[in-house]
Amino acid sequence: MSYQTDNAIIMAAGISSRFAPISYEKPKALIEVRGEVLIERQIRQLLEAGIHEIIIVVGYQKEQFFYLRDRYPVTIVENKEYLVRNNHSSVYAAREYLRNTYICSADNYFALNPFEKETQGAYYAAVFSPGETGEWCLTTDADDLITQVAIGGRACWYMLGHAFWSETFSRSFLRILEKEYDKEETKTKLWEDIYKEHIGELPMKIRRYPKEQIYEFDSLDELRLFDSSYIEHSGSRIMEKLAAAFGCPESAFTNMEPLKSGSGDIIGVLFQCGAQRYAYSYEKESITMTGHV
What we know:
globular; 7-stranded mixed beta sheet; single chain
């Protein structure tokens, strides 16, 4: 059975704290990669595939996304709970639009356009890892139906990129989400967690892609491998301050991680320079050494 795609929901509400320090200054979805803004590239690919109803779910620094309404035929929906809930809340915020729907992450980069106006049913994109991985690995049956999702594995296909929900899948998932939304334990869950826990009620197939077709940049170091312009010039004011303080190029700073307070608030960034680890505090604008690598 084939399904005509009705729309796409692009989730862009999160802080992306691992993408330190750039994501503290602008949403990760709005950075330029190889000359294109990430979310704009994805919007254009959807439009090229004939998908003209595009919903963008925003939260963190939401105002920075508003210009998209003037440039593209998009609808912006606010997720007011992005700070206290995981990405299932973005699906919930856009629940009225769920039909035959692409569910997308705003920070994915697709080398080739993966979107289609007509598909064969619900699926999740996946790429292959020949070695050990900590990603969400998939077990499938002879018909490519996903039968199990496990975090971590070896020589396996793992979730990466977009998903397509058929109208039947959307109805079933929303029924489960509405039932579990107010539970305290749901707050920290990805929508993929909820899917994994109810996999028997939510049939979905795997859609395999070459690894060089779908990219996700979890850190500045990963982005530098894909777009070399970020090695010396990230566009981050924080990185510029660090380069000036150390008297060295931005390329000297690696392994950037969020610096958090005891309550979990992001208060700065941890980084490596040479054989030393340092912490930079936003509030104090101070740099302290934290130890050797």
